[in-house]
From TrEMBL:
It holds the Pfam family PI-PLC-C1. Keywords: Signal. This is Calcium-dependent phosphoinositide phospholipase C. CDD domains: PI-PLCc_SaPLC1_like. Residues 1-26 form the signal peptide. GO terms for biological process: lipid metabolic process. The keyword Signal applies. GO terms for molecular function: phosphoric diester hydrolase activity. It comes from the Bacteria. The keyword Iron does not apply. It comes from Streptomyces actinomycinicus.
């Protein structure tokens, strides 16, 4: 009977999620106080023919896989080809060029699409752009954190919500700003992109690489702050991997732990192991839970029912997630744009 009551409660919450889209301007909750839906590998043509359609989808997170190509000195966007581009980005230089140009562009081309789309939708809800650096940065080849920041800044300018914006000239670290819940409201973040950076699968499997994207960008943020140039940083590094307790402890040098307020891990690991995820919401950290369909009971990874999506969103919101991700690109914008109150 207890299980039946829990299911009924989830379905009731699910119904509420679907009938209150993000466009409703009711209470203007903070970014840290909501749970929304994201799309895994949104650059793939099998999900969206054009990246602008991924932006149209209503999803609050879109993921890009990026390779540092040391031969061309460019950032390639692809799932498994480090030397070429295989994606739905067009490098549109103006809104009128979206939905029709040649695809398979580099990271700069994807950012161009975002800038052009942003002109058409200046009031869009905040979108987290999750960037997996498949092989990591390569600073020696001119593909390091500084160069990434420069590219994003040149392409997107003031439409990026940056670490310095969270610090607001007041807090000595991102950790202290998050704990004070200095995050703006979702309404205040309309028209903004937030970049989350994670280490990549190839990088983590490389026995000769012990300096991964997360640590490298954490060092970068710390060093920029030390010289009063935090405003140059365009992204938030994320702690990757579901763990219990504070996963920064023992993983990073104490000098950079306070520069991590984004956390990213498998949803089923958090929920199935009974981890105390209240740690994240209590400190107003941003928790991204991946592979949302895999949480028991598993649901379709591509096209579940609207009620199943809403119930899964409610379940993971109750487990303190900020964003849940999946391959639900087939769902409508009214579903992918659903936002609910974080647990």
């Amino acid at each position: 009977m207890r299980a039946v009551r829990r299911l009924a409660a989830l379905l009731s919450a699910a119904a509420l999620v679907l009938v209150v889209p993000d466009s409703a301007h009711a209470a203007a909750p903070k970014f840290s106080g909501t749970t929304a839906i994201g799309t895994h590998n949104a650059y793939e043509k099998s999900k969206y023919p054009y990246f602008a359609q991924a932006l149209d989808s209503g999803a609050s997170l879109l993921e890009l896989d990026v390779y540092a190509d040391t031969l061309s000195h460019r950032w390639r966007v692809s799932h498994s080809n480090p030397w070429g581009n295989d994606n739905n980005c067009e490098a549109a230089k103006a809104p009128g060029e979206l939905y029709g140009k040649s695809r398979n562009q580099d990271l700069g081309g994807c950012l161009d699409d975002m800038a052009a789309w942003n002109q058409l939708h200046p009031d869009h809800p905040p979108i987290v752009v999750k960037v997996e650096f498949k092989v990591g940065f390569n600073d020696r080849a001119g593909l390091g954190p500084d160069e990434f920041d420069t590219l994003v800044r040149q392409k997107l300018g003031s439409s990026v919500y940056k670490p310095a914006d969270l610090l607001a000239g007041t807090y000595p670290s991102l950790d202290s700003a998050a704990k004070a819940d200095a995050w703006p409201s979702r309404d205040a973040l309309r028209g903004k992109f937030l970049f989350e950076l994670i280490p990549g699968t190839v990088e983590k499997a490389n026995p000769f690489d012990h300096y991964w994207t997360d640590e490298e960008y954490g060092d970068h943020l710390r060093d920029l702050y030390a010289v009063g140039r935090t405003d140059q940083a365009q992204a938030f590094p994320a702690v990757l991997g579901a763990e219990n307790g504070d996963p920064r402890t023992g993983r990073y040098d104490a000098s950079i732990r306070p520069w991590f307020v984004f956390f990213d891990g498998d949803a089923a690991t958090y929920v199935g192991n009974g981890y105390d995820t209240s740690f994240y919401s209590a400190n107003h950290y941003i928790l991204i839970t991946t592979d949302a369909p895999g949480v028991s009971p598993a649901i379709s990874s591509t096209d579940p029912t609207d009620a199943e999506v809403a119930a899964r969103l409610a379940l993971l919101a109750g487990n303190h997630a900020s964003l849940i991700t999946s391959d639900w690109s087939a769902k409508s914008a009214s579903v992918l744009g659903s936002v609910t109150t974080r647990g």
